[in-house]
Automatic annotation (TrEMBL):
Name listed for the protein in its UniProt record: Probable alpha-L-glutamate ligase
Keyword entries, A-Z: ATP-binding, Ligase, Magnesium, Manganese, Metal-binding, Nucleotide-binding, Protein biosynthesis, Ribonucleoprotein, Ribosomal protein
Domain ATP-grasp: residue ranges: 264-447
Matches recorded under NCBIfam families: PRK10446.1, rimK_fam
Native species: Henriciella mobilis
An example Gene Ontology CC term for this record: ribosome
UniProt family annotation: In the C-terminal section; belongs to the RimK family.
Gene Ontology MF annotations: ATP binding; metal ion binding; ribosomal S6-glutamic acid ligase activity
Entry-linked InterPro entries: Asp_endopeptidase, ATP-grasp, ATP-grasp_RimK-type, ATP_grasp_subdomain_1, Peptidase_aspartic_dom_sf, Rimk_N, Rp_bS6_RimK/Lys_biosynth_LsyX
Pfam families membership: RimK (PF08443), Rimk_N (PF18030), Zn_protease (PF05618)
Amino acid sequence: MSDVLELGWEEWLALPALGLPAIKAKVDTGARTSALHAEVIETFGAPDSPKVRFLIQPDPDRPKLEIICTAPVVDRRDITSSNGQTELRYVIATEMQIGGVRRTIEITLTNRETMSYRMLLGRSAFGENTVVSPDRSFLQPKLSYDLYKEIKPPKPSTRPLRIALLTREPDNYSSKRLLEAARARGHVIDAINTSRCYMKIEARAPEVHYDGKTLPFYDAVIPRIGASMTSYGMAVLRQFQGTGAWCLNPPEAIGASRDKLLAHQLLSQAGIAMPVTAFAHSPKDTKDLVGLAGSGPVVLKLLESTQGRGVVLAETKKAAESLVDAFRGLDANFLVQEFVKEAAGADVRCLVIGGRVVAAMKRQAQDGEFRSNLHRGGKATAITLSPAEKRTAVAAAKRLGLNIAGVDILQSNKGPVVLEVNSSPGLEGIEAATDTDVAGKVIRLIEQRTRTLGRKR
């Protein structure tokens, strides 16, 4: 019969629509669905007509040969492999050419880098008039991986991103600027109230739900999590990570920055200079605790203070001891820290994005106030940092694992010392003081980390 397709247990075939002119496949009559090797799988497009982009190395012996493929998604289903493991896979439909036969087949995408064959051809792809001879191979014309020599290396593949902005304050300056900057660069961005997220936690398909609906896949998440939502916000962020989203600041880095004791310990371990700091929880020896931070004045800080709240200056050692006793009576966790007098009520906010300082301002406290926070009436002006200040700021953000950080530095007689590292720095003051498009730089960093398809991601 001339229309019978004869196959051996291994055959060469092509998938033209995917840009694959030659691929060696194992023919498996025991498998219903065909499978293709895929790495760095990314979905994109409208929710009602999603597409998938993935990376494939068609030749197992040439790992540097990489092809980027794109196809519509027709389904996502559980597939059980020959070893009994079940995996949730994307399913695509594409044209297959084998010998003189062309037909559209369904293929599931999975990582087959440990397999000898980059493709498995299941029986649903055979057609009615197909005969498989399990003791023979290459009954159809042989192809060659040399066909890929004519294919130019792929250029970085980019697309509009879908971004989630986690915030309970979508109308504040920082949120508005991030929304504007993302949309100006052609991305889809949704402001999501962290407290209204809830989670479906399972091994194969973790989901984040919001207002009775499952949230779509997001390429990236910008966390703007308030101090009161740190614990739950970190849990929501971990759930987004489980769906494959890239988080601008990962949850563990946010947790480290919010815990002032942990942050100081991590900075200390990295050899990053900071004011001498002492910590205690209900200490018995108040005098010794205060003495560890110096003879005075000293600063007392609640571990979870923000925007200058919970920060008190004790002018004398006796005043410091009284404050320690008061905090102890409240059963509060706090730090006692050396007061850097020569800073003269000023600090420097360094905005670090992607491992470099993109803007810096000097904040000067108003008369009679030692806290320079803008929320406390401090005044901000642009400043040019010294190389040592830049190195210190970058090192502090890196040690805590933050891709964006507001690093507060004091200019002491011993050089720059880190006062605090903020994982959700406000943008209004520093954009106004430096005339820098910080929000735009945040979006460009997200593009660099998520928009290009490649193994490094």
